[in-house]
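To close the chapter, one final illustration. This time we ask the reader to focus less on the individual chains and more on the assembly as a whole: which components sit near each other, and how the overall shape emerges from the parts.
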Amino acid sequence: MIFKVFGKKELPRLFDVIAVNRVVGPVQKGTDKNGSPLHTFGEVRDFAELSLDYKTTILSAKRFVLPFHETLCTFRVTENGWEKDVDFNVRGPTVFFGLHACDINAFNRLDKVLMESVYPTPYYASKRKNMFIIGTNCEPQPYCFCRSMGTDTALHGFDLFLTDIGDRYFAEVQSATAYNFLLQIKTADPKEKDHQRYMDVVAEKNKKFTAHVDNTDLTKILDMEFQSQAWKEWGDKCLSCGTCANVCPTCYCYGVEETVDMNATGARKIKSLHSCNLIDFAEVAGGHNFRPERHSRLKYRYYHKHRGFVEAFEESLCVGCGRCGEACLADITVPEVIASVRGEGH
Amino acid sequence: MDNRLPLVDIMEEGTHRRHDDIGSFEYTYKAEIMNIYPMTASEKLYQIQIIEPDRRNRFSFQPGQFVMLEIPGVGEAPFSISSSPIRHGFVELCIRNVGNLTGFLARMQRGAQIGIRGPFGTQFPVGEMEGSDVLLVAGGLGIVPLRSAILTVLENRSRYGSVDIVYGAKTPSELLFTYQYEMWRKFDINLSIIVETPDDEWKGPTGFLTRILEDRVAQAGANFAANTYAIVCGPPVMFKHVCGMLTKAGIPMQKMFVSLERRMHCGRGKCCRCNIGSTYTCLKGPVFDYWSIMNLKEAI
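The assembled structure is written out below.
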């Protein structure tokens, strides 16, 4: 990898170089009841709109590659039957300016199932291949447990990663395109003291994590504790609202519905993201529900993230961003659920 | 310098190493309903053929696999294939009128154009079973996926040892494929049919199908399991009893196969709706060996 450093004043200039493209970044959406700013990822046209010091966003950047509703295809009624037209709904290349390591890793993990496994999905892949990602370092929040999930640093899946080392940015350059952008602003090769400062920043960050998840033998423990009372207790709290899946950067489950156009000359097939906590998730025609109880659906969410995905791809689907715990109306958080299933603190 | 990023077309050669899979992800075969045979009050058998001849030749499947049947504007759902894989581009689907899509389908006429995606999923190990005795057990609608295996075994009858089919239904009026029993029996097959609740005309045995199986096991004695493969299709509650019983009788778990059903929206391990604990029914199933099922939480 190639490293560069550049002064903080150069960042707006870098933005202007890149901003001939569509740029998406963290912007302030409003404030919470305590007056703290709330952020989301939105389209940015001016550097001043960007809030690069954001803690986290309410919704992840998932919606730009996995929209909540997406038309998979349309049908045209013809004389002899119908024709199917497929469009992968690509909006063109997009620059993501200011993703944290957890969100970059979320895309990397989604790639494994949606782009690299058997049956890669073109809807995801076509948007994913049109992403240019600039990562930025972050400040661990009380709900962040990315360090436990191995996602506190991004090793790949970005073009450029910027770490604030005080008076300047330490840049990891991973694509030729990013390098070309950097050629248009004033940069320098990092010196020994820049390396040291970078290492110090990482070490300081690592000290600030307060939430942890013990992943030791977790896949086995989840199987052993399948009938654990802890699931029932969390299930009783759960409202089955699906908010956790909504804010999650890696929840990709969906349902498909078809509708007939109003003029009855066509139809469309619409994919909508779903949540395994919603009551109809495993309900089949005729009314049988394979997971009628709340606790079995909640348990399933953990099974998919922390067991099934690990079995298939050697790592957890959860990236430890903590969004689900923050958004949960019943205050259910991943570190607490896993600790209780492991038999700690219960 | 032009700083505009180029638009990457996923369908361009070399962009994705699985180019063909990317292109066919949302591909639907156009198919025609050739014939519709009412089988019971709520089930009909649909004979479906892919319309374009060159596509028809490319469409082949294995017994146990399923297809997604799509009616544009109405929806899409997975159905087990009931026919023999011998005819390319042709499937028979036995479908109960129970929901939105199947209700719409029940009102369709022959000649209608529908869509077929697939085939998807794993298969019954009909090749591996050659040279062995075969026990095929179906409860209720379980006969629908099993029939594909039955027909394959019949078409290659000389390759298998003794063949037992045990089929149980709630009432005689719910029995499916009744017109074929005589033909099946001509192939030196021991076909036993049992119903839970008989009607006035029923002359066969009554009760659960485990009764027949118990008799069969007792009759064959110690030789029963030595060289037997079993396929069990039916409601989840049946798996526990039948597979448990057959395991006790000595059939190894890895030589016993079941076909599971779940809600599905994609057939390709993406929508997660068919997930059982940690496994996708559409990719690793719907046919599983009993050992895998025992290892899957919440499977049966």
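The two ends of chain B are 62 Å apart (CA to CA). Chain B touches chain A through 54 residues (CB under 8 Å). With these observations in hand, you are ready for the problems at the end of the chapter.
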